[in-house]
C-alpha cells in the first residue's frame, strides 16, 4: 500500500470542465507517436470526446481497442494484450466507464510482463514492472476507477480484483462536460456506485483517517446532488457527481469496499443488474445490520465503539436522526433515481435466489465489513430486506 500511495501522489489529476483538452500537452510532454486507445465508442461519440480526441491524436499512430463487453472479461484482456504487443504503443488512453478504464489498466500493465496474464490474475504470479503511461478519461461519474490501483475482471464467470500499484493511472482527466449527455438510467446506476462506495468506505475495516476524509466529502456531494443529477441535471450537479465519484475512488483505493460490494457481484452476474444498482440494493439492509455490531462479531480491531461512531457519522451525513430513518433515506434515493429500492422491486424474491447470491459472495470484500457475516445472517438480511418496505 505504501508503494501505491507513493505512486498516487505522483499521478496527475485534472478535474474541471474541458479537462480532456489537456491530452494534447500530455502527448507532447511524453513525445508520444504510438497510442493504444481503449475506448467505448458509444460513450466517445455521445460525450463529444471523439472530436477532441481526433484532433489531439491527429499526428499519432492510434491502435483502437473497442470490442469488449460490459464488465471486463479475461478474454477481452487477452485480446487487448495481443493487439498491444503487435503495435508496441508508448502510451495507453482509456475513455469510457469503469469497464474501459479497468481493461486499459490491465492491458497496459499485463502486456509488458513475461508471465501469463491468466496466471497473474489468478494470483499465481506477480506483476514485475510498470507499463507505459496510462491516461484515464471517465465518461461516467461512478466507479472512480481513474483513482484506484485495482481492476475488476471476470474469469469463467468468477469475479477477481487485480491489485497492484502499477495499475494506478498516471493521469486522470475528469471532465464533467463528458457526462452531460448521459441518459438518466446511466447517471443513476453509476452515481449510486459512487454513493455506495463512499458509505461503505466510511465503515470499512480498511478505513483510515485519510480515506474517511475523502469518503465524507464524496458522501455529502452524492447525497446532495445524485437525485438532481438524474431528475434535472445541471452543470453544477454534473460537476458535483464527478467530484463525488473521484473522491469515492480515492477513498476505496485506501479502504476497499465491503459487504454490499461483496453481494453485488452475484447480483450482477446472476440477475444482470447494473453494478451501481446491484450494490445499492443491499446498502440500507447492511447499514441496519452493521449498526447492531457487538463485541463478539466486531471485525474492526478498533472495536465496537469505533464502528458505532462511524455508523452515527453515516446517519448524520444522510440527514437522519436514527438508523431506520437513515435506511429510509437510502431507499428514497434509489426510488427517486428511478431504481428498484429493494430485492422485491428488483424481482429477487425467492429463498433459492438468495441462497445462490450468498454462495457467490466475494469473501475478500466481505471480510472488510465491520461486522462479521455468516450464511445465516446474510440469508436473514436478504429476506428481511424484502419485508422491510
Ligand atoms: Zn463499485
UniProtKB/TrEMBL annotation:
Fe-containing alcohol dehydrogenase-like C-terminal domain ranges (all copies): 187-384
Family classification: Belongs to the iron-containing alcohol dehydrogenase family.
A Pfam family per the record: Fe-ADH
Sorted UniProt keywords: Oxidoreductase
UniProt keyword annotation of Glycosyltransferase present: no
Organism: Rhodopirellula maiorica SM1
Annotated GO MF terms: alcohol dehydrogenase (NAD+) activity; metal ion binding
GO terms classed as biological process: antibiotic biosynthetic process
Residue ranges of every copy of the Alcohol dehydrogenase iron-type/glycerol dehydrogenase GldA domain listed in the record: 16-176
Protein name: Bifunctional acetaldehyde-CoA/alcohol dehydrogenase
